[in-house]
Amino acid sequence: MHNARRFAFTLIELLVVIAIIAILAAILFPVFAQAREKVRAAGCLSNCKQMGTAILMYAQDYDDAIVPWLRRANYSGEPRAQRLWTGLLQPYVKNGGTNPPSGVFACPSGNPESIKKGADAQDCYPGELDDFWPPLEVWSHYAITFQMATRAGSGTQQDPYYQYAGSLAYPPEMGGLTRYMPEVKRPAETVLIGDGITMVGGGYFVIVLGCESAYVHQDGSNFVFLDGHAKRIARNSERYLSSTVENGQTVWYKTYYTFSME
After folding, report:
1. H-helix or E-strand containing 36?
2. Phi, psi (deg, nearest 5) at residue 49
C-alpha cells in the first residue's frame, strides 16, 4: 500500500498567483479595449461611407442640391423624422433615421459624454452645451453642417458657422439657404457630415460637429466629405473648428468647413 501525498498551495504562493493574474489583467485589458474600439471605429467609418454615397444620390435627385440639415415643416403635424437630415437621407441608406439613433445614424462608439468632453476643451468653440444637456431627444450620433442666408455674404468671413457648405431648407426670410454641389470649389476638402450629435434639447434643434467630436474614437473622429469619401481625422490635427487668440483677437480655424475654399 502506498501513501498518497496531498499537495496544496501555501498562502504566499496563492498571493503570488493572484498578483500575477492582476498584472496580466492590467496589461491586457487596455489592449482588448483598444482593439474593441478599433472595431467600433471601423463600423462608424462604414456608416460614414454609406452616408457619403447617400448625399451624392440625394444631389442627383434634387438638381445638385446639398441635403439640408433641417427642413421647415409643411404642416404642423409633420414628424421630425421627415424634417431632419437623417430622414431626408433615409431613403438612400434604407435604414436608421429614428429616435433613438439606429442603423447608419448610430455610431457604435456614440457617447454624449465624449462630445461634452470635446466641447469643454479650451480651444473648442462654441463649447457651450450646458443649456442643452442632457438632450431630450437624440436623433443621430452624427451631425451635418449648414449655412444661413441671414449671415452669408460679405462681412462674415471670420465667422466659422456661416461659411459651412450645407443647406437649411427654410424660406430666405427665415434664414434659409440652399447650397449646390457645383458651388463648392474643393468638395474633397469640405466636410458635410461627421461624428457629433443631432438632438432636440432645451426646446431647440441642435447639431454639434467639429472640435466637440475630438474624443469619439481614441482621440479622433470620422468625417464625410462632399465628394462622398470618408476618413478619420486625429484630434485637432487640422484644428477643425477651434479657436485661438492672436494679437488679442480670436482667430477661427475652420479647415474642412469653408464654403468657398480658395
Report:
1. helix 11-61
2. -65, -40
